[in-house]
Specification:
Elements lengths: L10 E2 H7 L6 H9 L3 E3 L2 E2 L5 E2 L4 E6 L2 E7 L9 H5 L2 E3 L1 H16 L13 H11 L3
Antiparallel strand pairs: 1-4, 2-3, 2-5, 5-6, 6-7
Amino acid sequence: MKPTEQHDERVRLDKWLWAARFFKHRSLATEAVDGGKVQLNGIRVKPAKDVKIGDRVDIQIADSRYTVIVRGIAEKRGSATLAQGLYEETPESIAAREAGREARRLAATPGADLHGRPTKRDRRQIGRFTGEG
């Protein structure tokens, strides 16, 4: 299985996302496209929309956002090295993901200031806040 280099070849968007290893299952790729997490050339599309070489695909997965240019077409899932040949990530996308990763790394861990069980005073404050006391 090689990525094709012909410009007239097309494949469904959900199949391409699965073959390019952005999603573990094709059904997850379909759900992401239906949910608006994937855009083709800046437009929200359906999973059956055809992808061709040169298209721009914007993908939102959890906290990460990828903007990639389609460089190859494949209908079947292959090795990770072949999958990386199917697309080229834009420099802006790489920079934005690195900045987000660094911000998350430097952010305080939620609950880091809490130590052990709440004191009697803390329990009273929690009770007042929740309306139980």
